[in-house]
Design brief:
It is a single chain. By secondary structure, the protein is mostly helical. The chain has a domain at 21-80. The chain has three helices and no strands. It is rod-shaped. The termini are far apart.
Length: 92
C-alpha cells in the first residue's frame, strides 16, 4: 500500500514537472523582472530630471547654485542665533 501510493505520487509529480518548461518559465520571469526594474529606474531618472527642471524654474534667471548656497548659509546662521556677518545683497 504505502510503497504503491508513494510511487503514484512520485509519478504524478514527475509527470507534472515533465509537462512544465521550467527553464522557459524562469527566463520569462527574469525578463518580466528586468523590464519592471528598468521601468522603476526610468521613473527615478525622470524624477531627478523633473526635480532639476523645477529647481531651475524656481531659481529664475540670473540665480546660481552659489547664490542659493549663500542664502541657505545665511538662513542657517539666523536659525542658530549667531549674528551673521554682513553679506552682499541679493537682488531678485
Amino acid at each position: 500500500g504505502a510503497v504503491a501510493l508513494a510511487s503514484v505520487c512520485t509519478e504524478a509529480r514527475l509527470a507534472e514537472l515533465g509537462a512544465a518548461n521550467i527553464p522557459t518559465d524562469i527566463d520569462t520571469l527574469l525578463t518580466r523582472l528586468s523590464a519592471l526594474r528598468a521601468g522603476y529606474l526610468d521613473n527615478l531618472s525622470a524624477g531627478a530630471a523633473a526635480l532639476e527642471a523645477s529647481l531651475t524654474a524656481i531659481k529664475g534667471a540670473g540665480w546660481t547654485t552659489e547664490t542659493l548656497k549663500a542664502i541657505k548659509e545665511y538662513i542657517d546662521e539666523l536659525e542658530s542665533g549667531a549674528k551673521p556677518p554682513k553679506k552682499a545683497r541679493f537682488e531678485v
